[in-house]
């Protein structure tokens, strides 16, 4: 037993190096605290929050961002009925070919993936000062910090001029360290968007959300924090729709293994009883 | 059924006896996994070979299922992997098992090797057994490296680019070798295609080498924590039920830890950038390999010269091939080597430090640290080990395994 514990310690020591990149970005600003219903071993998505988040996504973000891995039919997993989802899909016109092979536009169906706002990446970049808005299907999994980072990004827009002198000094220091120039200073122009959590602190996306940007159908008060948390909740679901399955199965598998391990231990002790 | 060591088994079941008379598979199982004598004092470190075997089966089983749903083409690979996660029934489970299985395979094999290092299992007459193990390690690394390229995320692509580019450091023929590996002038569709073909092939080669590994093992039987040979039946126990039950328990504990990762932190050991589709025009700020390559990656970068780095990295594994002849001590187990015992742990710490160096950008104090750690790694094998064997005074060895076991019980 003692050796087993030692062996596990060795394994954990070997795992330690990866812990570095599991933490959030290297922003000088502390991350705003948020609690997610889907974190922890028994976590599940909050259907109401995800539905509100979908409303935000549909009314604001789809103007620029695609969600190419999610189909309209998937929305039923958030608790919307099939008819509701059909109606949502039908609001979009998607390209297709008719029976004569001529390109046409038809209303989207349940099986279609979310409509892309731009024909291709070049068009997307051209419409956004040269920086194509990324597809958001996996954004929560694709950034260190996960949902906490996405949320922080959305609430992290600030006026650089209003930062404390201390924070400004820290930013300058980071720029100096990165460039190797001891006199370098962090600068933002009027046209650039300062964001406390985006790597480099300057992002091509202007603040997409503000209080009351969306009027929630369920009457929830649309503060910036509420909107950001809800749309992040929706994007977390889009990144991992099978999260609930995974955790539910996991609890059962671990309980089963725990019992079996206990049995194995008892049998092993019994067998070895006369040999120790 | 016969269970005395050495006598051929008699099978009561007629069909079994009929088959065994023509194809002695039942005799084989009987001899190698039932009556096979195991030193009675092996500890839980001796579980990791069985654990690695289970993982090998798991990797092949999940891998074949993944392959039935995967598309090896630069335009579709990323989406096909996401489809497995989202649309294939239980696809997420198969993928999480395979992804984390690779990491846990390395955990098991590294512990397995550390066991060999600590208890001197590589010494005569087990040199070839150890060497076959190092061959398995190399095959495992190649398999894991190519597997990581398949999902065609940013780290897949850039990892493949960095590692294949290493070969360009070879004088004269380097650039041609790299083009040959790529099947073109960059990591592109032909590269992905051949990596998939090889990633499917190599695990079966590993199965073959593992079979040889077991044959070599059963020639002289397992080593043990005392590093002395069993002298008779009082020193051993039959493999079944003693080791089957002990291995069974060890495997279950390992699976518990493994499943905790699979179900509750499936992406903890991965890199978030690999959820971004490969883009040859966007270089990630830090290109890092998977955690199990980090110590070797650190050795590669510790040498300022590119060719020198590549040579050092390969040499780090090559020294393992000659380890049985570098160690000059006549005593196997570190239990009786009062000085070397500590240096084995220093080497372990050194490898962990190298891991951290590999995970961090090659700048600031990480550069000298990785150079010192690299130097120490080679110092351990090439200087310390041969010299210490000559000057160290080992503790007296016990008379027999049974003696030692009974004494421990009494005291
Ligand atoms: C696919 C990976 C591997 C598998 C499936 C495997 C399998 C096994 C098995 C079943 C045993 C007997 C049980 C035990 O002693 O734990 C064993 C023993 C051994 N293996 Fe491996 N092995 C693998 C990789 C390696 C590697 C990479 C090395 C070292 C470079 C290695 C070195 C040894 C040695 C020295 C022994 C004998 C240990 C002793 O008796 O003290 N193996 N292996």
Can you tell me about this structure?
- Chain A is mainly α.
- Helix content of chain A is 43%, strand content 5%.
- Chain A has helices spanning 2-22, 47-59, 82-90, 121-126, 146-155, 165-179, 224-239, 243-272, and strands at 93-97, 103-107, 193-194, 202-203.
- In chain A, the strands form 2 sheets. A two-stranded antiparallel sheet of chain A has the order 1-2.
- In chain A, α5 (146-155) packs antiparallel against α7.
- Chain A is globular.
- Chain A starts with a helix and ends with a helix.
- Chain B has 411 residues and is mainly α.
- Chain B contains 15 helices and 2 strands.
- Chain B has helices at residues 14-22, 25-33, 48-67, 77-86, 91-118, 127-149, 154-165, 174-182, 189-220, 239-264, 294-302, 306-326, 340-359, 366-391, 401-410; strands spanning 37-39, 236-238.
- In chain B, strands 1-2 form a two-stranded antiparallel ribbon.
- In chain B, α3 crosses α10.
- The radius of gyration of chain B is 24 Å and the shape is globular.
- Mean pLDDT of chain B is 95; it is low at 1-5.
- The interface between A and B is large, with 51 and 56 residues.
- The structure holds protoporphyrin IX containing FE (HEM).
- Protoporphyrin IX containing FE binds next to α3, α5, α6 and α9 of chain B.
